[in-house]
Specification:
By secondary structure, this protein is mainly beta. Helices cover about 10% and strands about 50% of the residues. The strands form 2 sheets. Strands 1, 4, 5, 7 and 8 form a 5-stranded mixed β-sheet that branches. The N and C termini lie far apart (about 70 Å).
């Protein structure tokens, strides 16, 4: 038993001494500047939605779409990857991202595009209702 504990302690001590020189990253959720949605959906069809967002500087890059289901509501934002170990140009970069929505519900879709937070830290959304035919 003592040998196992000694072995585990050695592994932990050794792994804490390894210097990781790899890139340093953080994740951040970015706001949606603008969204283009169809006027209506037809049940069973697939539609494209395009969102525009801004990367604050060259350290930011698109990672994935934040897309959360809440009953008939869909919360949408951008997940960004941020390099924290390099110098960045301060020029903002505007981008578009298009994703598909497979219409699987017969109720209207409510899209909540994240616009940021207010002074009290409460989330601000632009809500768009897309009726289903």
């Amino acid at each position: 038993m003592k040998k196992i504990v000694l072995l585990l302690m050695s592994v932990i001590l050794f792994s804490s001494c390894i210097d990781d020189d790899g890139p340093k990253y953080a994740y951040e959720i970015l706001t949606i500047d603008e969204a283009t949605v169809p006027e209506s959906f037809t049940f069973g069809e697939v539609y494209d939605i395009t969102v525009k967002y801004t990367l604050p500087n060259s350290c930011y890059s698109f990672h994935s779409l934040y897309y959360e289901y809440q009953d008939t509501t869909r919360v949408v934002a951008i997940n960004a990857l941020v390099r924290t170990d390099i110098n960045c140009t301060e020029e903002a970069i505007e981008r578009d991202y298009t994703f598909e929505v497979n219409v699987t519900q017969q109720e209207d879709y409510i899209f909540k595009f994240w616009k940021g937070e207010d002074a009290d830290g409460e989330n601000i959304f632009e809500e768009v209702v897309v009726p289903v035919n």
